[in-house]
Amino acid sequence: MPATQNTVYVRDPARFDMTGRKLSDTITPTGGDISHGTVARMHRYALRHLADAGFDVSTWACEVYTMDGDLPPSERTYAVEFTSTKGGKLSICGIHTSNGHPFLHMEVAASLG
Hints:
single chain; 113 residues; alpha+beta; seven-stranded mixed beta sheet; 7 strands
């Protein structure tokens, strides 16, 4: 099984063009890490849900990340993204935690690319 990467991002302040139209959001890595235990629980949780849906991604590269770096860990929403050697991706987004245990808030999203 490949090593699981983890990244904590924070959303940058909203930006607007000269006409007042909002520009796309940008995110910046904070340099912080998600705890080893949380990464392991998120990874197992995502593997189990994808296996239940018929996907075997156990040999794919994995990244656990959050874009809520400005929030305490217990209030963050996490995503787990698996990437095949050919570039295909499967992600589970919107994972919350309750007393350290993950629960799914959103559905499985597939991205082929």
